[in-house]
User: What shape does this take?
Amino acid sequence: MSSKVKDWHLLVREQRAASARRIAVGCDLTLGSKATLDACGVCKGDNNTCKFFKGQYTLQHRANAGARSIFIQEVAVSTSYLAVRSLKKKHFLTGDWTVDWPGKFHFGGTVFDYQRSFNRPESLLASRALESRVRPAERSAVAQSADDTARNLP
Assistant: This one.
């Protein structure tokens, strides 16, 4: 049997067998491969197709569909909270007079890891691509993302 997966059902069976033997399946769908995705989601990529956005923001901003490797962090511990909502003002993280606890949040077609501690700045991280626009908002936050679709984060 070839180590290259050619069929979805075969992939599932081989992944289950690999899991039992703890053999990795890389992003190239090859058993035993160490191939990984780059910041833009390209298998075995070197980030050369990415457009990176990094900066300090003091107003609301939006993250476009396709943006990935998103990391947002407060500049310093504050009494404010990171908040995320849709362009239609539906709140996904903190909003409408509620403050969410740290944890995993599913929105924008991906999973965000929200971290908050009493002695460290809040942060929000998503490695997989957004499927829809969201609007992270916080006073004085640092944001960074990779977007292989070359759309702007205003």
